Amino acid sequence: MDNTQGKWPDHVGILALEIVVPYTYVNQTDLELHDGVSKGKYTIGLGQERMAFCSDREDVVSLCLTAVSLLMHRTRTSYSNIGRLEVGTETPVDKSKSIKSMLMRLFDNCNNVEGVDSTNACYGGTAALFNSIAWLESSAWDGRLAIVVAADVATYARGGARPTGGAGAVAMLLGPNAPLVLDRELRASHMADTYDFYKGDMGTNYPTVDGKVSIRCYFEALYNCYYLYRKRFLKKFADTNNSESNTQSNTSPKSVLQHFDAIVFHSPYGKLVRKAFTWLTLHDVQLDAKCYDNESNLLKYVNSDISVNMLSELGVIKDTEKLFKKLTAPTQKLPKNIGNMYTASIFGGLISYLLSKPTNEMAGKRIAMFSFGSGMCSSFYSITIRPGAKLETLIDLLQHVPVMLENRQSASTVEFENTLTNRELAYNKAPFEPTSNVDNLFPDSWYLTHIDSTFKRYYAQKK
User: Fold this and answer.
1) Are residues 167 and 23 in the same domain?
2) CB neighbours of 230 closer than 8 A, spacing ≥ 6?
3) Same domain for 62 and 195
4) What total number of domains does the chain contain?
5) Which residues contact 184 (CB under 8 A, 6 or more apart)?
6) Contact, 14 vs 301, CB < 8 A?
7) With a threshold of 0.90, does the pTM exceed it?
8) Is 122 a catalytic residue?
9) Which residues form the Hydroxymethylglutaryl-coenzyme A synthase C-terminal domain (predicted)?
């Protein structure tokens, strides 16, 4: 396929996905006991169950290498058929050399590959996705496919933020005639200069975080992105009653939000996602009250002053619980069991939804995606699922994910703390020889063998 016709290809989107996580995790219930906090502080208060963490053999590069190599193997795609490779991350290992360049070791004599890294906190994966979709729809497209990798290792200093860590990578194969199509003309962004979360201290890999400000930024971005997306949706379809999602003349009017079958949020931790869903729903009620005539429990909020504080009230949570279970709870399986994968978090939510019901129930569904990165960058966009053999293949290739999660090794809290301490000591250290056992890695995983005295990093693949 080429682009000689001067026309963008049809149905550009995601052809396949691959997710990679570290072999080890710690149970949040065990961490509660270890930290001496009240029972449920992490499991209920944060809404998390397990947290993945990396040994000194694993880093963002090894996760990316594993994700790309497995994606190519499972899809039987030739490296020569990849024309763009872009990485989204906020945990680079080099201030100059991109992770994308390190992935080129996989592309034996296939060096004509565009793309580099995109960085802005948890948003980089979305930026890489948008860039690659734009390439596929541009005059520069040469008929080949694109790969986007979102990967991070999220760790925090000892304290209240440490249980919100995690690690993982999601690789996506992009191209035309895809089963997961990014909706054209339906995207909105909100960007601002904030210091809610940043990594200005080059002597540590830990961020400086103002939790309250970061939450405020998240909700501000969510509202503004949805408000702008809603305007674009209404402009595109002129009237939601006449959109392709609501063509029956005898149906009740729908708000823009009600056209979605699932809503995926960037997920630092589960409780924030729960609040975000409530925040979005209540604002949608105020924007389109007539569409909620049959939802008396929600109509009472039409004239309410919606604040972040009210999102924790039991009554408000109860009033939105039914919709949450339908639209967003199915997206939380992986985020709850892996933790915050930063740039990969939102795509972990997407995979969770794709695994939540039979393939034949997925066709025609529309998924809302809210991506947020502190600092801040955010976007609201949507994906439509197309039926057919390619959808069946995409979901079939994800069936190993639940098994992989259960085959991980549960580590003690002492092992977890010691591992993070060792990573602190090894940060920016050269030469460096990892000591963790390679046996404690999944088969076919790439891993760090050593760092030499000039800070060059060396990797190998476990067979």
Assistant:
1) yes
2) 256, 257, 287
3) no
4) 2
5) none
6) no
7) yes
8) yes
9) 180-462
362 and 275 in a common domain: yes
Distance CA 433, CA 431 (A): 7
Look up tokens 């056992």; give the residue: 437
Asked whether residue 4 is domain-assigned, the answer is no
Q: Are 308 and 287 in contact (CB under 8 A)?
A: no
pLDDT > 90: what percent of the chain? 92
263 and 333 inside one domain: yes
275 belongs to an annotated ligand binding site: yes
The SS3 call for residue 177 is: coil
Residue 358, in any domain of the structure? yes
Within 10 Å of residue 110's Cβ, how many Cβ atoms? 15
The answer to the question of residue 398 being in a domain is no
Which residue segment(s) compose the domain that 24 sits in?
Answer: 13-181+403-461
Confidence at 248, pLDDT banded by 50, 70, 90: very low
377: Cα separation from own chain's centroid: 14
Residue 139, annotated ligand binder?
Answer: no
Torsion sign (Cα): 174, 176, 180, 182 = positive
Is 214 annotated as ligand-binding? Answer: yes
What's the average model confidence in pLDDT over 427-446?
97
Catalytic pick among 18, 49, 90, 283: 90
424 is catalytic: no
Averaged pLDDT score across all residues of the chain: 95
SS3 (DSSP) at 165: coil
Task: State which amino acid sits at residue 277.
Answer: F
Q: Name residue, tokens 């680079």.
A: 92
**Catalytic site includes residue 400:** no
Catalytic residue among 122, 225, 291, 377: 122
